[in-house]
Amino acid sequence: MATSTHSVSLEMSASAHSTADTPTAHLDELLAELRSKALEFAKVSPSARAALLRACLPAIRAQARPWAEAAIAAKGLDAGRPQASEEWLAGPMTTMRNTRLLAEALDAIATTGSPGPEEKKVRRDERGRTVVEVFPNTVVDALLYTGFTATVRMKEGMTPADVRTAQGSFYKQADPKGGVSLVLGAGNVTSIPPMDALYKMFVDGNVCLVKLNPVNEYLQEHLDKAFAPLVEKGYLKFVKGGTSVGTYLVNHPEVDDVHITGSDRTHDLIVWGPPGPERERRMREDDPVLKKAITSELGCVTPVMITPGPYSDSELAFIAQNVATMMVNNASCNCNAGKMLITAKGWSGRDKLLGLIKAELGAQKPRKAYYPGAFDRYRSLVGERADVVKLGDAKEGELPWTLVFGLDSANKEEDLFITEPFCPILSETSLEASDAAAFLKAATAFCNDRLWGTLSAVLIIHPRTEAEPGVSAALYDAVDQLRYGAVGINQWTGLVYALVTTPWGAHPSSTLKNVQGGLGWVHNTFMLEGIEKVVLRGPLTVFPKPPWFVTSKTAHEIAPKLVELEFEPGVLKVPAIAIAALRG
Question: What is the CATH number of domain 24-153+173-262+264-297?
Answer without folding.
Answer: 3.40.605.10
